[in-house]
Amino acid sequence: MIRKATSADGNAVAPLLVQALGHIAGIFAGSEHYEDAIPLVKTFFERNDNQYSYVNTLVFEDETGVVGSVTGYDGARLHELRQPVVDRLREVQPDFTPGDETEAGEYYIDCVSVDPAHQGKGIGKKLIAAFCEHAASLGFEKVGLIVDKVNPDAKRLYEDLRFNVAGEKDFLGHSYFHMVRKVLH
Question: Going from the N-terminus, what domains does the chain have, and what CATH number goes with each?
């Protein structure tokens, strides 16, 4: 079942967010061990004022609990939603200044993740479809995301889900394809 997340989902969703963030989680934690970012990410998830918040998240729950999540928001709100994260990271990394991975006019998928024990069951595809339906219900014409160029499997998955490469972006030390899917015709 797919449902809106609540702040009580933090223990389940924070590791999923860290898994999706990958090397970015390492930047957040100041560590090569991405899982070190789980407490910080959980704190942001449980708040309602930032890009990783439960208010921006849908979860997939089965009989074992939450096993997948998708987090995203209106690209026009990126700076506003990212500011609490940037403020916190600048406490230890004063020069932290990420570029923009999204833009106005698109509903942006920031993180999509499925617990490794539940991958290959179509959960990620269902979450992305639900996210796209949500974006359309809000009047957005397109959904955007970035996919690391070193992850061709993810790029193919998104292409299978009708996302097309719209450009390229450099973000926090990696090169990404910016991909877009039209959701309103």
Answer: 2-142 (3.40.630.30)
